[in-house]
């Protein structure tokens, strides 16, 4: 890996983060983690109350990265063909009838799957192939999606009536699940001043698709020392309740995170190191993204639910038990 590539990447990442922060007040941690996922080629599940800026964040990122943006509003009557597209009958020049594939909104670079848990499992599953393989299959014909390709999905944590919780297999396809908090007092004032009393600034393009893919390749080359990799591995394995020495997992979890969680943890830590201005992965890089990688991949058992614990609190307990060596 060339040092010049690392320095260039650090400068670009800093500029992208700074440009988005001009139009998104606060939410620094959310912005950082969404960008980490994008430069790692991963998908993100954003959970937060209405009005906290989830949609505006995704649109702003698409403008700064100069990517084709598409929004899908998920509803119970949405069908898979509404997402991926369908074959339609069309006439050619000589008047004969042919089937022509009409592309759906999934054919974009950044797809905002708004309120994804409002759609039925059948429709939710239409995203799985696109999220994992970057392809779409319709009537036996496979179509490749343009890269870079990311799904940024949102869901409301409060309104659960008439919703369909995402299955574990689909949640595992999200590199991060990020909680989007309500802004604080000072941030509320800044938001009002920016959006009500003055004209909203427009984010400016910083890079484009080819550069994003190139940075993704550089991210994968960031070195990680053996002790740090072993720490990340122990952390993921500590969520498995079937392992005898995992007291916390055995007490509070039905199931834990698997190999994909470790892959995402290491990859995300590499990108975080570059955002922090370091050419190698540190223990703090693993810790800073651990909850976003692990929380949606573990299942609470009855004892944890009866004690009022959340996935985040259980992961905190596991993090406190893990030692760096």
From TrEMBL:
SMART domains: AAA. Keywords: ATP-binding, Nucleotide-binding. InterPro entries: AAA+_ATPase (IPR003593), ATPase_AAA-3 (IPR011703), CbbQ/NirQ/NorQ/GpvN (IPR050764), ChlI/MoxR_AAA_lid (IPR041628), P-loop_NTPase (IPR027417). Residues 40-184 form the AAA+ ATPase domain. One of its GO terms (molecular function) is ATP hydrolysis activity. It holds the Pfam family AAA_3. Belongs to the MoxR family. This is ATPase associated with various cellular activities AAA_3. It comes from Caldicellulosiruptor acetigenus 6A.
């Amino acid at each position: 890996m060339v040092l010049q590539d690392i320095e260039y990447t650090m400068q670009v990442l800093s500029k992208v983060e700074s440009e988005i922060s001009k139009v998104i007040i606060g939410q620094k941690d959310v912005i950082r983690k969404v960008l980490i996922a994008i430069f790692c080629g991963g998908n993100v599940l954003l959970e937060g109350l209405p009005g906290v800026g989830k949609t505006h964040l995704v649109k702003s990122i698409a403008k700064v990265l100069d990517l084709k943006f598409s929004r899908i509003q998920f509803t119970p009557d949405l069908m898979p063909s509404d997402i991926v597209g369908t074959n339609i009958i069309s006439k050619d020049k000589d008047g004969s009838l042919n089937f022509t594939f009409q592309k759906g909104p999934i054919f974009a670079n950044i797809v905002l799957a708004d309120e994804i848990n409002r759609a039925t499992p059948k429709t939710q599953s239409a995203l799985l192939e696109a999220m994992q393989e970057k392809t779409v299959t319709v009537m036996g014909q496979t179509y490749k999606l343009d890269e870079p390709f990311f799904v940024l999905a949102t869901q409301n944590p409060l309104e659960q009536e008439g919703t369909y919780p995402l299955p574990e297999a689909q949640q595992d396809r999200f590199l991060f699940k990020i909680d989007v908090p309500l802004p604080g007092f000072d941030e509320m004032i800044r938001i009002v001043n920016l959006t009500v009393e003055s004209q909203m600034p427009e984010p400016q393009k910083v890079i484009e698709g080819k550069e994003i893919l190139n940075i993704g390749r550089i991210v994968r080359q960031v070195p990680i020392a053996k002790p740090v990799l072993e720490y990340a591995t122990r952390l993921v394995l500590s969520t498995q309740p079937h392992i005898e020495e995992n007291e916390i997992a055995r007490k509070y979890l039905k199931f834990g995170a698997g190999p994909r969680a470790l892959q995402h943890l290491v990859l995300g830590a590499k990108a975080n190191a570059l955002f922090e201005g370091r050419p190698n992965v540190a223990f703090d890089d693993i810790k800073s993204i651990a909850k976003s990688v692990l929380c949606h991949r573990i299942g609470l058992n009855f004892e944890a639910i009866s004690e009022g614990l959340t996935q985040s609190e259980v992961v905190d307990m596991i993090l406190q038990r893990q030692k760096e060596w």
